[in-house]
Design brief:
elongated; alpha+beta
Length: 246
C-alpha cells in the first residue's frame, strides 16, 4: 500500500501535464484554422501590414462599412454602468479622459446634418465609445472615438480617438446588452469590427485568436510539476529509508 503513496501524486501530475498539453494543442489548432481562413486583400490590409500607428491609418481605405449591434433609435442615450478610461497611447501612465460610472452618453450620436440642418443619428463608422471599437496591434487595447455626452453639441465624427482597454469594453458591453435584453454575445458585439475586417481581408485581429498559453495553462503546469516532484521526493525518501534498514 505504501508504494501508492508516491505513485498517486506522480500519476496525478502526469495527468495534469497531459491535460495542459491537450488544451494548448486544441487552442493552437483553432488558431491555425482562423489564420488559414483569412484571405488578405492587398489594397485594404496594407496599412495594418505596414505597422502604421493607429493615428495614421485611414479607415476609409479599409473597405469596411458601418458597424452596429442593433436598432438604437434617434438620439438614444445610455448611462455607463462602469468607469471607462481613455488613454492617448497604451504606454500612457494615466488616462487622458475618464468617464465615470453614471455618465450619460449618446449610444446613437449625431453623425451628420440633413438638408434642413437637423442632426441625423447613427453609429459612426470605425470607432465610437465602447459600441464599435477598432482592433489595434495588441489584444489588450482597442481604438475608438470618445463618446459624446448626452446633449453635447457637435458631431460624433469630430470626436478625438483614444485607446481603451479591451477588458473595459467587454465589461461595459455585457452590461449594455443585458440592459437592452439582447441575446447577442458580448464578445461578438465588442469584436464586431474585428469580424468585419476579417471577412473583408482587411486585418486579422489578435482578439480573434485564442490565447494558447493562458493563466489556466500556467496553473495546470505548475500543479502538475509540483505533484510529480512531490511524488519523486516521497519515492526517494522511501528508497533512502529502505536502504538504511538494510
Amino acid at each position: 500500500m505504501k508504494r501508492w503513496i508516491s505513485a498517486v501524486p506522480i500519476a496525478l501530475g502526469a495527468m495534469l501535464l497531459i491535460g495542459c498539453g491537450v488544451r494548448v494543442g486544441l487552442a493552437a489548432k483553432q488558431n491555425g484554422e482562423v489564420i488559414n481562413g483569412f484571405k488578405r486583400v492587398e489594397y485594404s490590409s496594407s496599412q495594418y501590414e505596414q505597422g502604421l500607428p493607429m493615428e495614421q491609418i485611414d479607415f476609409q481605405k479599409c473597405a469596411a462599412a458601418n458597424v452596429t449591434i442593433g436598432n438604437y433609435g434617434k438620439g438614444k442615450s445610455y448611462v455607463l454602468q462602469t468607469t471607462l478610461h481613455f488613454f492617448d497611447s497604451p504606454s500612457s501612465p494615466v488616462p487622458a479622459v475618464t468617464l465615470e460610472k453614471g455618465t450619460e452618453i449618446y449610444s446613437c450620436p449625431p453623425v451628420a446634418l440633413n438638408a434642413g440642418g437637423e442632426p441625423e443619428y447613427n453609429i459612426p463608422e470605425y470607432g465610437y465609445g465602447f459600441f464599435a471599437t477598432v482592433p489595434t496591434y495588441q489584444r489588450e487595447w482597442r481604438y475608438t472615438r470618445l463618446p459624446m455626452k448626452t446633449g453635447e453639441e457637435g458631431l460624433a465624427g469630430e470626436q478625438p480617438y483614444f485607446y481603451l482597454r479591451t477588458g473595459e469594453v467587454m465589461q461595459e458591453m455585457k452590461r449594455y446588452l443585458a440592459q437592452e435584453d439582447s441575446d447577442a454575445s458580448p464578445e461578438e458585439a465588442a469584436l464586431a469590427v474585428d469580424a468585419l475586417f476579417y471577412e473583408r481581408g482587411v486585418y486579422l485581429s489578435p482578439n480573434l485568436l485564442v490565447p494558447e498559453w493562458d493563466c489556466w495553462s500556467i496553473v495546470l503546469t505548475a500543479a502538475g510539476v509540483c505533484a510529480v516532484v512531490a511524488g519523486l521526493l516521497i519515492l526517494f525518501a522511501r528508497h533512502k529509508t529502505g536502504r538504511r534498514k538494510e
